[in-house]
Structure formats: C-alpha cells, structure tokens
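User: Some background: our group keeps a shared notebook of sequences we're curious about, and every so often someone picks one and asks for a predicted structure to add to the entry. Today it's my turn. The entry only has the sequence so far, pasted here. Could you supply the structure so I can complete it?
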Amino acid sequence: MAFVDGQFPGPLIEANQGDNVEVVVTNGMPMNTTIHFHGITQIGTPWSDGVPGLTQRYIQPGKSFTHKWKADQYGSYWYHAHSRGQIDDGLYGPILINGKGQENCWSCTKINQLTTGIQRVFLQRDGDNQLTDKGCLPARSVAAGLSPGLQVNLSAIPADIFDNCKPTNGELAVIQVTQDPTGIVSIDEHPMYVYAVDGGYIQPQLVQAISVANGDRYSVLIKADRAGDFAIRVASAAMPQLMSGMATMRVQAANSSSPTRVVTRGDDYGDDEDGGETGGKQKLRIQQAPPVPAPTQPAVSPTSTPYINDAGAAASRNTFKLSMRHDGAAYKWALNGTIYPASADEAPTPILFGPPQTKDENDVTISTQNNTWIDLVFESAIFPMPPHPVHKHGTHMYLIGQGQGNFTWNSVAKAAPARPQSFNLQNPPKRDTFQSLVAVGQPAWIAVRYHSSDPGPWLMHCHIQAHLEGGMAMVIQDGVDAWPQVPSEYLEMS
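Assistant: Of course. Here's the predicted structure to add to the notebook entry:
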C-alpha cells in the first residue's frame, strides 16, 4: 500500500474557487513517483500537471516537488500517482473546490478529526466517543465534568440545542478510482439528484443509480427525510457483481440518539452500461446531461459553434481520427494504432522543457494551434473491443457524437449532416473523461470537441491502469504557436 500523509485514501485537498493552490509532494517511497491533479485544467501552469517525461521529471526518493496552480474551477476532482501503476497501490485522494459563495458544512468524520484534547476529556467522562451531529459536546458530557453538588436539569434543555439535525438535502461526491469494471452506485431507498459531472454543473437528473467509470466524478443531493441505516452500494456492471464492501448512510431520528431501523435490502442492476431502465432502476443518462450554463446556439450545423460560453469559440478547424486497438499481443493496447512507449516517462528532458516536437500528427503525437477548436474521433475499429475511459489532461471535452459502424467521413463537418441523429451540437455534455463505445460484431465510434486554449503537452490516455501501462496513450501538443516558457524553478526541480 502507498499512503499520503500516513493515510489511505489521501487527505482531502479543499480550496475555494479563485484560490491559489500550492501542494508540496515529498517522496518517502523507495521508487520514483509523480502526482497528477485529475480534472484540474492547469490553465497557465502545465508544469504542475504531474506527468513524467512530459511536464516534469520524476520525483526521486527523498526529493520534493512543489505544484502551484489556480483553482479556476469548482466541484469534485482527485489527485493520484501518475507513475508505474502506483495508483493501484492506493496513492490517491479527493479534491473539493467550493464554488464562489458556496459554504460546505463539515461531515461528522471531519468534526471528529478536529475534536480537541479537552473535548475528548469531557467525552470520556460520560462514556461518549464523539460529538453530536451538530458538532457539539453532548450536554450530559458537560454536566459530568461539573463540580460535585451543582444541580443540573438536562430535561430543561430543548432537544435541538445540542443535536437532532433536521431532515435536509445532503450533498455527496462520488469519485471512481478503482480499476474494476464500471460500478453502479446506489443508496437504499434514496433517489439521488445528480447536479454535477466531472466538476461541472448539469441540468439536474433524478435517478436511482449512477453508472460510474474509472475517473468519473458525480455530485449528488439526497433528501435525508427518513431515519435509519441505509446501505451505500457499489455493484459491478459485470460479474462478480459485488466489487467491495458497503458504506452506510446513517440518518438519526429527530428525538433519538440512534437510528430507528437498519435497511439491508440490496438491488439488482444488471449490466446495462448505457443508462436507462435496468433492473427496475432509473440510471443516469450522460447523453442527456447537458452542461449548465448550456450552449445557446439553436442551429445544428457542422460549421456552427454551439459553445458560446467559451471565449474564442470558432468552427472546428481539425478532425483527428484515432484508431483504438490491441497491438497483437496480450496486455498491449494502442490509442491510435501505435503503443505509447513506457520509456517516455524516463525522458531526461520533458517535452514541455523544450520546443514542441517537430514530428507532428504521427500515431502518438498530434499538434494544434492555439485558440482553435479540435475534433477527435475515437474508432473502436477492431472488435470485440471493451469500453475505454479516455481521459485528456488539460482542457475538458464535449461529447458531440457517437454511433455504430465505421466513421467513413474525414471530418465531423461532413459527418453531421449525413447522420444528424448521431450528433448533438446544441447542448453536448462536457467532461474530462469519456467512455468509448463497446464494439461487438461491428466497429463503433465517439466524437469529442475541445477548445485548444491552454498551450502545452497534454497526455490523453485510457484511465484503466493496465491499458495505460500497455501503451494506450498519446500526447497532444496544444498551442504549438504559443508554447509556454517554463519557470526556472521548475527546470531545476527533479
């Protein structure tokens, strides 16, 4: 196991939107490492993205590296190792960026972590072991510490002074970090209002379950209007269905110190990964999760730009078709026909530290101009092909199209009018990780669009660690005409 500050998962990094964040990573392990901040766009700070051989050198044992970036975004993210499968050893933790004007109440776990020594003395006197659900010392614990002879009438204290939280909508962030098959998350007897995906607000959806692929993040609200213990379940979309243990959501009754009942009933969700009615449960349809604020361009035109909320939007300038495949050997994968070499991590001079690579548009590197719109078409041309959660570092992407069969056009501009039912150019979902379609019996494809607005070399890869280590990755050099100048302090870090 790998621990961060002595714990697993690693501690929460919490910031407010607009904060300048500084994270010092000290490598106490006997092997090299780096840390990536998943979903953080790193606008103007590509040297803090955490990819060895690309944006920095390895952090050697006993050495430190200081990441500096601005929290321009809001929502749920996570950090994890980006070196030799260390993420599977547990080297990861959550990131929460509070939106402007937002205030988050601490959880009971957080309250107990901050319980002071003197508070614990009072708690132990009465046999209690934690603060109330309002973060207060129980009245009886305070009374137990008073001088003998003092008269105390605990019954005269209103029940809601020290504890008894009122029924409310509770906030929950779901982050998928495992390398297991797609998980299906649910809470017994509690529907969930999904209001954010990969850190960005969406038109809210009321669902019974969420299909969560590797790297995904979902923010949900739950109405805590019934007392009891309710299981938070993670079922697999494939066999074996139960992937791990279960958590418990505990809702305390208004006038009780313990839940009134325990619910242990489970649910069967089947293996439908597209969402919709499965096993009687309504799952989130990501294709119907437009971002908020939604693009307002009404026309569906291959030359229109529906994303007017993004500065500098213009018609897509380039379409790159990428062929996902096996490479003729077990555990070898390719994002565009060629294996990304593991030796790239060991490069003595990261790509960012020099001029852009001159060999453009080969199988493992493509280059773009700054302030242009780029279309990427991922083709599952060899079948059977499982779904791959493809993650792009840096700027996020819009899912603008998907379909079965071969993508026979050389651009989205030509494909959209030919197959309008396969494209959404009005209010496409925006994410940093998309799952490719399963190819069984015939090829399949998805098309994404992003704005090249943050110059630098960005890794794009399958987020299943075994596939990444097997070569399923490539480099996108965005903004080669506006290549960033690396600060001297980062040139010297190792």
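Suggested note for the entry: The first strand starts at residue 13 and ends at 16. DSSP finds six helices and 28 strands in the chain.
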